[in-house]
Amino acid sequence: MSTVQHPDPSDRPARLTVGVVGAGRVGPALAASLQLAGHRPVAVSGVSDTSRRRAEAMLPDVPLVPPAEVLQRADLVLLTVPDDALPGLVTGLAETGAVRPGQLLVHTSGRYGAKVLDPALRAGALPLALHPAMTFTGTPVDVQRLAGCAFGVTAPEELRLAAQALVIEMGGEPEWILEENRPLYHAALALGANHLVTLVAQAMDLLRTAGVEAPDRMLGPLLGAALDNALRSGDAALTGPVARGDAGTVAAHVTELRRHAPQAVDGYLAMARATADRALAHGLLKPELAEDLLGVLANRAVDGNGTDGTDGTEGNAR
Q: By CB distance 3.0 to 4.6 Å, which of 25, 120, 265, 312 could disulfide with 136?
Protein backbone atom coordinates (compact mmCIF):
# COMPACT_ATOMS: atom_id res chain seq x y z
CA MET A 1 0.00 0.00 0.00
CA SER A 2 1.33 3.44 -0.91
CA THR A 3 2.34 5.74 1.90
CA VAL A 4 2.14 8.86 -0.27
CA GLN A 5 -0.08 11.46 1.39
CA HIS A 6 -1.66 14.58 0.00
CA PRO A 7 -0.30 17.68 1.73
CA ASP A 8 -2.40 19.26 4.43
CA PRO A 9 -4.09 22.25 2.72
CA SER A 10 -3.60 24.33 5.87
CA ASP A 11 0.16 24.02 5.38
CA ARG A 12 0.04 25.56 1.89
CA PRO A 13 -1.58 29.02 1.95
CA ALA A 14 -1.20 29.79 -1.79
CA ARG A 15 -4.27 28.11 -3.25
CA LEU A 16 -5.12 28.21 -6.96
CA THR A 17 -8.34 28.21 -8.90
CA VAL A 18 -8.27 25.27 -11.32
CA GLY A 19 -9.87 24.86 -14.73
CA VAL A 20 -10.05 21.85 -17.04
CA VAL A 21 -10.21 22.02 -20.83
CA GLY A 22 -11.15 18.56 -22.06
CA ALA A 23 -13.18 16.44 -19.64
CA GLY A 24 -11.83 13.09 -20.73
CA ARG A 25 -10.64 10.51 -18.25
CA VAL A 26 -7.55 12.42 -17.11
CA GLY A 27 -8.58 16.04 -16.51
CA PRO A 28 -11.35 15.57 -13.93
CA ALA A 29 -9.20 13.11 -11.97
CA LEU A 30 -6.27 15.53 -11.76
CA ALA A 31 -8.57 18.41 -10.82
CA ALA A 32 -10.19 16.27 -8.11
CA SER A 33 -6.74 15.38 -6.79
CA LEU A 34 -5.73 19.05 -6.70
CA GLN A 35 -8.96 19.76 -4.87
CA LEU A 36 -7.89 17.31 -2.17
CA ALA A 37 -4.70 19.34 -1.83
CA GLY A 38 -6.73 22.49 -1.20
CA HIS A 39 -6.98 24.01 -4.67
CA ARG A 40 -10.40 25.01 -6.01
CA PRO A 41 -11.81 23.73 -9.31
CA VAL A 42 -13.90 26.53 -10.81
CA ALA A 43 -14.64 25.56 -14.42
CA VAL A 44 -14.52 22.63 -16.82
CA SER A 45 -15.25 22.21 -20.52
CA GLY A 46 -16.39 19.09 -22.29
CA VAL A 47 -17.79 18.34 -25.73
CA SER A 48 -19.41 14.91 -25.66
CA ASP A 49 -22.27 13.87 -23.41
CA THR A 50 -19.99 11.27 -21.83
CA SER A 51 -17.33 13.82 -20.93
CA ARG A 52 -19.91 16.20 -19.52
CA ARG A 53 -21.42 13.47 -17.36
CA ARG A 54 -17.95 12.49 -16.19
CA ALA A 55 -17.17 16.07 -15.22
CA GLU A 56 -20.42 16.35 -13.29
CA ALA A 57 -19.67 13.11 -11.43
CA MET A 58 -16.00 13.81 -10.64
CA LEU A 59 -16.33 17.57 -10.07
CA PRO A 60 -19.84 18.17 -8.74
CA ASP A 61 -21.05 21.77 -8.68
CA VAL A 62 -18.21 22.89 -10.96
CA PRO A 63 -19.79 24.74 -13.93
CA LEU A 64 -19.41 23.48 -17.49
CA VAL A 65 -18.37 26.38 -19.71
CA PRO A 66 -16.60 26.94 -23.07
CA PRO A 67 -12.79 26.60 -23.12
CA ALA A 68 -12.14 30.36 -23.31
CA GLU A 69 -14.24 30.92 -20.21
CA VAL A 70 -12.32 28.22 -18.37
CA LEU A 71 -9.17 30.26 -18.94
CA GLN A 72 -10.90 33.43 -17.77
CA ARG A 73 -11.83 31.86 -14.44
CA ALA A 74 -8.75 29.79 -13.54
CA ASP A 75 -5.22 30.49 -12.33
CA LEU A 76 -4.17 26.95 -13.28
CA VAL A 77 -5.59 25.39 -16.44
CA LEU A 78 -5.28 21.70 -17.27
CA LEU A 79 -5.30 21.05 -21.02
CA THR A 80 -6.33 17.40 -21.14
CA VAL A 81 -7.24 16.84 -24.78
CA PRO A 82 -5.96 14.16 -27.20
CA ASP A 83 -2.37 14.61 -28.37
CA ASP A 84 -3.27 15.48 -31.94
CA ALA A 85 -5.70 18.18 -30.81
CA LEU A 86 -3.29 19.89 -28.41
CA PRO A 87 -1.23 22.13 -30.78
CA GLY A 88 -4.34 23.53 -32.45
CA LEU A 89 -6.04 24.14 -29.12
CA VAL A 90 -3.05 26.04 -27.72
CA THR A 91 -2.68 28.15 -30.87
CA GLY A 92 -6.38 28.94 -30.92
CA LEU A 93 -6.51 29.96 -27.28
CA ALA A 94 -3.47 32.20 -27.70
CA GLU A 95 -4.69 33.84 -30.91
CA THR A 96 -8.11 34.64 -29.47
CA GLY A 97 -6.62 36.32 -26.41
CA ALA A 98 -7.95 33.73 -23.97
CA VAL A 99 -4.54 33.20 -22.33
CA ARG A 100 -3.77 35.52 -19.41
CA PRO A 101 -0.25 36.61 -18.38
CA GLY A 102 0.98 34.71 -15.34
CA GLN A 103 -1.51 31.88 -15.84
CA LEU A 104 -0.21 28.34 -15.29
CA LEU A 105 -1.00 26.30 -18.38
CA VAL A 106 -0.49 22.57 -17.91
CA HIS A 107 -0.89 19.89 -20.55
CA THR A 108 -0.89 16.16 -19.82
CA SER A 109 0.27 14.78 -23.17
CA GLY A 110 3.06 12.23 -22.98
CA ARG A 111 4.17 12.98 -26.53
CA TYR A 112 4.82 16.69 -26.13
CA GLY A 113 7.10 18.67 -23.87
CA ALA A 114 6.72 22.32 -22.96
CA LYS A 115 7.44 23.73 -26.45
CA VAL A 116 3.97 22.88 -27.71
CA LEU A 117 2.81 25.61 -25.32
CA ASP A 118 5.06 28.26 -26.93
CA PRO A 119 2.10 30.21 -28.39
CA ALA A 120 0.70 30.54 -24.87
CA LEU A 121 4.15 31.35 -23.49
CA ARG A 122 4.38 34.28 -25.88
CA ALA A 123 1.03 35.44 -24.52
CA GLY A 124 2.47 35.42 -20.99
CA ALA A 125 1.42 31.99 -19.73
CA LEU A 126 3.64 29.73 -17.61
CA PRO A 127 4.00 26.39 -19.48
CA LEU A 128 4.23 22.98 -17.82
CA ALA A 129 4.08 19.45 -19.25
CA LEU A 130 2.91 16.99 -16.56
CA HIS A 131 2.11 13.52 -17.88
CA PRO A 132 0.86 10.94 -15.35
CA ALA A 133 2.27 7.51 -16.17
CA MET A 134 -1.02 5.84 -15.33
CA THR A 135 -4.01 4.34 -17.10
CA PHE A 136 -7.29 6.07 -16.30
CA THR A 137 -10.83 4.70 -16.02
CA GLY A 138 -12.78 7.95 -15.72
CA THR A 139 -13.97 7.04 -12.22
CA PRO A 140 -13.00 8.18 -8.70
CA VAL A 141 -10.57 5.25 -8.37
CA ASP A 142 -8.21 7.24 -10.62
CA VAL A 143 -7.64 9.78 -7.85
CA GLN A 144 -6.48 7.01 -5.53
CA ARG A 145 -4.16 5.58 -8.17
CA LEU A 146 -2.30 8.88 -8.44
CA ALA A 147 -0.74 8.17 -5.05
CA GLY A 148 2.83 7.17 -5.89
CA CYS A 149 2.25 7.58 -9.64
CA ALA A 150 5.25 8.81 -11.63
CA PHE A 151 4.73 11.95 -13.74
CA GLY A 152 6.84 12.70 -16.80
CA VAL A 153 7.68 16.39 -16.25
CA THR A 154 9.09 18.88 -18.73
CA ALA A 155 9.25 22.57 -17.83
CA PRO A 156 11.44 25.63 -18.18
CA GLU A 157 14.16 25.75 -15.56
CA GLU A 158 12.50 28.61 -13.69
CA LEU A 159 9.27 26.59 -13.35
CA ARG A 160 10.76 23.29 -12.18
CA LEU A 161 9.89 23.93 -8.54
CA ALA A 162 6.31 24.81 -9.45
CA ALA A 163 5.98 21.65 -11.54
CA GLN A 164 7.44 19.53 -8.78
CA ALA A 165 5.10 21.05 -6.18
CA LEU A 166 1.99 20.37 -8.27
CA VAL A 167 2.96 16.74 -8.89
CA ILE A 168 3.70 16.15 -5.22
CA GLU A 169 0.41 17.76 -4.22
CA MET A 170 -1.39 15.25 -6.43
CA GLY A 171 0.43 12.46 -4.61
CA GLY A 172 2.73 11.77 -7.53
CA GLU A 173 6.47 11.55 -8.05
CA PRO A 174 8.12 13.82 -10.67
CA GLU A 175 10.45 12.28 -13.25
CA TRP A 176 12.23 14.89 -15.38
CA ILE A 177 12.11 14.21 -19.13
CA LEU A 178 14.11 16.27 -21.62
CA GLU A 179 12.06 18.00 -24.30
CA GLU A 180 13.69 16.02 -27.11
CA ASN A 181 13.08 12.71 -25.30
CA ARG A 182 9.32 13.08 -24.85
CA PRO A 183 8.29 11.01 -27.92
CA LEU A 184 10.63 8.15 -26.93
CA TYR A 185 9.44 8.30 -23.32
CA HIS A 186 5.83 8.11 -24.48
CA ALA A 187 6.55 5.27 -26.91
CA ALA A 188 8.03 3.27 -24.04
CA LEU A 189 4.93 3.71 -21.92
CA ALA A 190 2.59 2.87 -24.80
CA LEU A 191 4.61 -0.24 -25.61
CA GLY A 192 4.47 -1.43 -22.02
CA ALA A 193 0.93 -0.48 -20.98
CA ASN A 194 -1.28 -0.14 -24.06
CA HIS A 195 0.09 -3.20 -25.81
CA LEU A 196 -0.18 -5.17 -22.59
CA VAL A 197 -3.95 -4.69 -22.65
CA THR A 198 -4.08 -6.02 -26.21
CA LEU A 199 -1.95 -9.04 -25.33
CA VAL A 200 -4.02 -9.89 -22.26
CA ALA A 201 -7.32 -9.48 -24.12
CA GLN A 202 -6.08 -11.73 -26.92
CA ALA A 203 -4.87 -14.34 -24.43
CA MET A 204 -8.28 -14.37 -22.71
CA ASP A 205 -10.05 -14.76 -26.05
CA LEU A 206 -7.86 -17.74 -26.96
CA LEU A 207 -8.38 -19.39 -23.58
CA ARG A 208 -12.15 -19.07 -24.01
CA THR A 209 -11.83 -20.70 -27.41
CA ALA A 210 -9.81 -23.48 -25.74
CA GLY A 211 -12.69 -24.06 -23.31
CA VAL A 212 -11.44 -22.21 -20.23
CA GLU A 213 -14.46 -20.78 -18.41
CA ALA A 214 -12.65 -18.16 -16.34
CA PRO A 215 -9.56 -17.00 -18.28
CA ASP A 216 -9.14 -13.98 -16.03
CA ARG A 217 -8.67 -16.20 -12.97
CA MET A 218 -6.23 -18.41 -14.84
CA LEU A 219 -4.16 -15.53 -16.16
CA GLY A 220 -4.20 -13.34 -13.05
CA PRO A 221 -1.58 -15.17 -10.95
CA LEU A 222 0.55 -16.01 -14.00
CA LEU A 223 0.66 -12.47 -15.37
CA GLY A 224 1.12 -10.96 -11.93
CA ALA A 225 4.17 -13.16 -11.36
CA ALA A 226 5.53 -12.47 -14.84
CA LEU A 227 5.19 -8.70 -14.39
CA ASP A 228 6.83 -8.80 -10.97
CA ASN A 229 9.70 -10.94 -12.27
CA ALA A 230 10.20 -8.70 -15.31
CA LEU A 231 10.32 -5.53 -13.21
CA ARG A 232 12.79 -7.14 -10.82
CA SER A 233 15.01 -9.05 -13.24
CA GLY A 234 14.44 -7.75 -16.77
CA ASP A 235 15.42 -10.21 -19.52
CA ALA A 236 16.50 -12.78 -16.94
CA ALA A 237 12.79 -13.34 -16.23
CA LEU A 238 12.14 -14.70 -19.74
CA THR A 239 10.64 -18.21 -19.78
CA GLY A 240 8.65 -20.29 -22.25
CA PRO A 241 9.26 -22.05 -25.56
CA VAL A 242 10.91 -19.13 -27.36
CA ALA A 243 13.49 -18.57 -24.63
CA ARG A 244 14.10 -22.34 -24.50
CA GLY A 245 14.42 -22.64 -28.28
CA ASP A 246 11.52 -25.09 -28.67
CA ALA A 247 11.00 -24.49 -32.39
CA GLY A 248 8.49 -27.32 -32.74
CA THR A 249 6.26 -25.93 -30.00
CA VAL A 250 6.36 -22.44 -31.52
CA ALA A 251 5.47 -23.86 -34.93
CA ALA A 252 2.52 -25.69 -33.36
CA HIS A 253 1.40 -22.44 -31.71
CA VAL A 254 1.41 -20.60 -35.02
CA THR A 255 -0.50 -23.40 -36.75
CA GLU A 256 -3.21 -23.34 -34.08
CA LEU A 257 -3.41 -19.56 -34.08
CA ARG A 258 -3.79 -19.51 -37.85
CA ARG A 259 -6.63 -22.03 -37.54
CA HIS A 260 -8.50 -20.45 -34.64
CA ALA A 261 -7.39 -16.79 -34.46
CA PRO A 262 -5.61 -15.68 -37.64
CA GLN A 263 -5.80 -12.05 -36.51
CA ALA A 264 -3.39 -12.91 -33.67
CA VAL A 265 -0.69 -14.51 -35.83
CA ASP A 266 1.22 -11.39 -36.83
CA GLY A 267 1.35 -10.14 -33.23
CA TYR A 268 2.53 -13.53 -31.96
CA LEU A 269 5.29 -13.72 -34.56
CA ALA A 270 6.46 -10.17 -33.91
CA MET A 271 6.62 -10.65 -30.15
CA ALA A 272 8.25 -14.07 -30.54
CA ARG A 273 10.97 -12.58 -32.73
CA ALA A 274 11.59 -9.80 -30.23
CA THR A 275 11.66 -12.33 -27.39
CA ALA A 276 14.10 -14.56 -29.28
CA ASP A 277 16.43 -11.63 -29.96
CA ARG A 278 16.47 -10.62 -26.30
CA ALA A 279 16.84 -14.21 -25.06
CA LEU A 280 19.73 -14.80 -27.45
CA ALA A 281 21.48 -11.56 -26.47
CA HIS A 282 21.03 -12.36 -22.78
CA GLY A 283 22.42 -15.89 -23.13
CA LEU A 284 19.14 -17.65 -22.34
CA LEU A 285 18.55 -18.98 -25.86
CA LYS A 286 21.31 -21.29 -27.01
CA PRO A 287 22.74 -20.31 -30.41
CA GLU A 288 22.47 -23.88 -31.73
CA LEU A 289 18.71 -23.80 -31.04
CA ALA A 290 18.14 -20.28 -32.28
CA GLU A 291 18.58 -21.12 -35.99
CA ASP A 292 15.60 -23.49 -36.19
CA LEU A 293 13.48 -21.20 -34.05
CA LEU A 294 14.22 -18.11 -36.11
CA GLY A 295 13.55 -20.13 -39.23
CA VAL A 296 10.05 -20.93 -37.98
CA LEU A 297 9.43 -17.30 -37.14
CA ALA A 298 10.79 -16.06 -40.47
CA ASN A 299 8.75 -18.50 -42.55
CA ARG A 300 5.44 -17.65 -40.88
CA ALA A 301 3.04 -20.57 -40.44
CA VAL A 302 3.12 -23.65 -42.65
CA ASP A 303 -0.08 -25.64 -42.92
CA GLY A 304 -0.51 -29.27 -43.83
CA ASN A 305 -0.45 -28.49 -47.55
CA GLY A 306 3.00 -26.90 -47.36
CA THR A 307 1.74 -23.35 -47.84
CA ASP A 308 1.74 -20.37 -45.57
CA GLY A 309 -2.03 -20.29 -45.38
CA THR A 310 -2.42 -17.26 -47.67
CA ASP A 311 -3.24 -17.15 -51.36
CA GLY A 312 -1.08 -15.45 -53.95
CA THR A 313 -3.34 -12.44 -54.25
CA GLU A 314 -3.04 -11.53 -50.59
CA GLY A 315 0.68 -12.13 -50.56
CA ASN A 316 1.29 -9.88 -53.57
CA ALA A 317 -0.85 -7.14 -52.11
CA ARG A 318 1.27 -6.78 -48.99
A: 25
| Per-residue pLDDT tens digits for 37-69 | 999 999 999 888 898 899 999 999 999 999 999
86 Cβ contact list (under 8 Å, min separation 6): 79, 107, 109, 112, 116
Q: Give the whole-angstrom CA distance, residue 20 versus residue 75.
A: 11
CB neighbours of 215 closer than 8 A, spacing ≥ 6?
A: 203, 204, 207, 208
CA 109 to the chain's CA centroid? 10
- Using only C-alpha atoms, the chain has a radius of gyration, in whole angstroms, of 24
pTM for the predicted model, two decimal places? 0.84
List alpha helices for 170-264, DSSP H: 182-189, 195-209, 215-233, 241-244, 247-260
- Would you say 258 and 302 are in contact if contact means Cβ atoms under 8 Å apart? no
Torsion of CA 157, 100, 12, 173, to 10 degrees: -40
What φ, ψ does residue 84 adopt, rounded to 5°?
-65, -20
Of 157, 155, 152, 160, nearest to 184 (Cα)? 152
229-237 average pLDDT score: 96
